[in-house]
Design a protein that fits this description.
With about 375 residues, the chain is α/β, with parallel strands linked by helices. Helices cover about 35% and strands about 10% of the residues. It has helices at about 40-50, 80-95, 140-160, 175-180, 200-215, 240-255, 270-275, 280-290, 305-310, 320-330, 340-345, 345-350, and strands at about 10-15, 15-20, 20-25, 55-60, 100-105, 165-170, 220-225, 255-260, 295, 335. The strands form 2 sheets. It has an 8-stranded parallel beta barrel with strand order 3-4-5-6-7-8-9-10, surrounded by 5 helices. Strands 1-2 form a two-stranded antiparallel ribbon. Helix 5 (about 200-215) packs parallel to helix 6 (about 240-255). The longest helix is centred in the middle third of the chain and has 21 residues, at about 140-160. It is globular and about 60 Å long. It starts with 10 loop residues before the first strand and ends in a 19-residue tail after the last helix.
């Protein structure tokens, strides 16, 4: 029988006390008509909180910029009605004994033009181009960028007013902050451009203003990735020498936890350095910065999330032993679980009780409902 007790050790990060190391990964669900999360959304998160998930990170929530998202069912994180909906979510998660963070998000150049809550809005991006060179016919001024930064801070401030326990900034997967990181989408020659460290300026301003909004005792989680959904093999940093100053800039700005998104948690980030069983991305984040990290990527499944949309089924539970081994040697501090929790709200309880044989296999149909 697999010993899963290491997943259920408590952890304290600044003023955040968590009962265990299991995090519900943020997953876009698009069940919030007109951007307003209803009781079904509150129930969805509360079910996981009641079943031993240590920290809920919500789906991406759209900050106060008209082009922040491409789907009218993506939840907003501004305005009276959406915030009232999120207030109910927080209260229900807390009543179930859980802790919760909103993921504050802007899609950037990944947004389809002419879509979302405000289809006529200009698409925000660093340089007015998409990753494949399409001209968006709008390059933001420094004043525009200042408002983007302020919108993240406004969301964080509202999160604290609503009673959220912490916040996560979405800086991964080719969305707005990642657009600033990437040289294919950031061609600026002002303070927001330059080399990789120079291209962290936008993120640093976001982090600094979010810190001012949440105070010193609330941890800031920052999610980032090397890959983009449309560029699997692209990397911001090709080795630890490049990665260390990049991460250092984010940590110096105020990040407390690095949520390192990769497609499969068991894959080494720099195999040429430490081999096929070497550190994953979260492992390198912790090694290079010394701050806590969250791993994610196909936990208890055998393929990545994006493959699911390509028609591949995800099955399997055997990688939990690998996960626990890495956690026990302190490669990372927490584990974010996505599809396994989406299909099976009681996944964490089953792990705690050693009932691995009772896992529900992932079913793509679960993407169509809020089970």
């Amino acid at each position: 029988m697999t010993d899963t007790s290491s997943l259920f050790r408590p952890i304290k990060i600044k003023g955040l006390d968590l009962p265990n190391r299991i995090v519900m990964a943020p997953m876009t669900r698009a069940f919030s008509p007109k951007g307003i999360p209803g009781q079904n959304v509150a129930d969805y998160y509360a079910r996981r909180a009641a079943a031993d998930v240590g920290l809920i990170v919500t789906e991406g929530t759209l900050i106060r910029r008209e082009s922040a998202g491409e789907n009218e069912n993506y939840p907003l994180f501004w305005g009276d009605k959406p915030l009232a909906g999120w207030k109910t979510v927080v209260e229900d998660v807390h009543a179930a004994g859980g802790k919760i963070a909103p993921q504050i998000w802007h899609q950037g150049a990944a947004r389809a033009e002419g879509s979302g809550h405000f289809p006529d809005a200009n698409t925000d991006s660093p340089s007015g181009v998409t990753f494949d060179g399409k001209d968006l016919n709008y390059t933001p001024t420094e004043e525009d960028i200042a408002d983007m930064v302020a919108a993240y801070a406004d969301a964080a401030r509202d999160a604290m007013k609503l009673g959220f326990d912490t916040v996560e900034i979405h800086g991964a997967h080719g969305y707005l902050i990642d657009d600033f990181f990437w040289d294919k989408t950031n061609k600026r020659t002002d303070k927001y451009g330059g080399d990789l460290v120079g291209r962290t300026q936008f993120a640093k301003e976001v982090i600094q203003q979010v810190r001012a909004a949440v105070g010193d005792d609330t941890p800031i989680i920052f999610r980032w990735s090397q890959f983009k959904p449309y560029a699997y093999k692209d990397k911001l940093a090709h080795n630890p020498t490049e990665l260390e100053p990049f991460l250092g800039a984010l940590v110096d700005a105020g990040v407390d936890v690095l949520h390192a998104s990769q497609r499969r948690f068991w894959e080494p980030e720099f195999a040429d350095i430490d081999g096929e069983k070497g550190l994953n991305l979260a492992g390198w984040c912790k090694k290079l910065t010394g701050i806590p990290s969250i791993t994610v990527g196909s936990v208890c499944l055998d393929n990545d999330f994006l493959s699911t949309f390509g028609g591949q089924e995800a099955t399997g539970e055997s990688n939990i032993e690998n996960l626990i081994e890495r956690l026990e040697r302190e490669e990372f501090d927490m584990v974010a679980v996505g599809r396994a929790l989406l299909t099976d709200p009681e996944w964490a309880t089953k792990v705690k009780e050693g009932r691995l044989e009772d896992f529900k296999p992932f079913d793509k149909d679960s993407l169509k409902t809020l089970a």
